[in-house]
Amino acid sequence: MDHFLYKNKQLHAEDVDIRDIAETLGTPFYCYSAATLTRHYQLFTQALEPLPHLVCFAVKANSNIAVLKLLGDLGAGMDVVSAGEYLRARAAGVPGEKIVFSGVGKTVEEMRIALGGGIRQFNVESEPELEALSLVASEMGIEAPFALRVNPDIDARTHDKISTGRKEDKFGLPIERARDIYARAAQMPGLRIVGVDMHIGSQLTDLAPFEAAYTKLAELTRQLREDGHTIERLDLGGGLGIPYTRSNETPPLPSDYGAMVRRVLGDLGCEIEIEPGRLIAGNAGILVSSVIWRKSGGAREFLIIDAAMNDLLRPAMYDAHHDIIPVVEPAPGEPAVAVDIVGPVCESGDTFARQRAMPLLQSGDLVAFRSAGAYGAVMASEYNSRPLIPEVLVKNDQFAVIRRRPSYDEMLARDSLPAWMQPPAGEEPETGQAQVTEG
Ligand code: LLP
User: Fold this and answer.
1) Tell me, what's the pLDDT at 438?
2) pTM score, two decimals?
């Protein structure tokens, strides 16, 4: 359940009429619901009770500092994959002891930043990384807490681009080599073993691959303990899928997932860490856009809207489906037409939906993409020199801009000319610099 519903025939985010936000900010924009974020976080933490646990929100799914602060204030930890994400979590007030640092290619510089600022654990993915971490921590005179990310060679049966737990994927270290690597790590200075980590993929709609992977994790934990290591924590990664359509998709609920975790891992006495991103933020956000033009093409009707693939990349990148709904609720029995919903970017891939049944919309009408709160704003770019779009957070009947729309001037000002293109002092440039202001 989320909090984006029609009230009096108008789409609302909680108690805020989407048209009010659109009138204030213009379109397109992302809009998140505080109540939905809160509810989804609580579902996870309740699902894992009574096991000791920490729900570490995967910052990559939605890294807005206001969103992180909302979750952090509820007690969430954070899973970060870059110094940038680490600094965002810290800026949101999350203490280092609640931040896990994942990622296949952490740099020495990133290790220094996290060690200096405080970190719960590094999820180490390679032997060179382990050696570098040992060196950096020793130089700093501290111990780096770490878990090894093991690759269990399990097919998550999800989209190929977001499957991470097969042996041909770039992630983690083969589970068969884990005992040797832990034995080596135990001899290295500056390191402290705290647990084991895995993450097998994203948007999983079946618990079976998780269960197969966690069964291997339980076995490894027992072996590592027999080898004399202290394994206090198990980091299970993220990956639980969400329904992207309202029809017949029924991915497992956090409560089903929690019951399975308790059954497979509950007797090990470990603190459980999980790293959900999509399930917390996905259905807590929408992308609102307006129709620029409607046009009849040679073979199709097109709705050309002001959001594009640079704002929401998922359909272009993964052929992902997002429900797209009119902001004004269609009247019962109102005729629908099949349209292709496309953005203005100059690529055929900038297509959000093909032959989607929509009411007859006109220029200026608003539409909302559902399930856009995770991997939406964070994956946006300025392709076609389209400035990043704003983000708004709603709470009850209030809304606040949590990232503003940059002006065209700000976007242009980041570029600079090399010295050899600058006119010599005293000479006027041949062409005047365009003065651009936001309309
Ligand atoms: N932990 C690790 C180590 C991860 O790599 C990921 C996601 C997560 C946690 C969170 O997974 P979630 O609970 O959100 O499924 N851009 C893609 C998704 C990429 C996911 C990458 N890793 C998309 O739009 O579908």
Assistant:
1) 46
2) 0.96
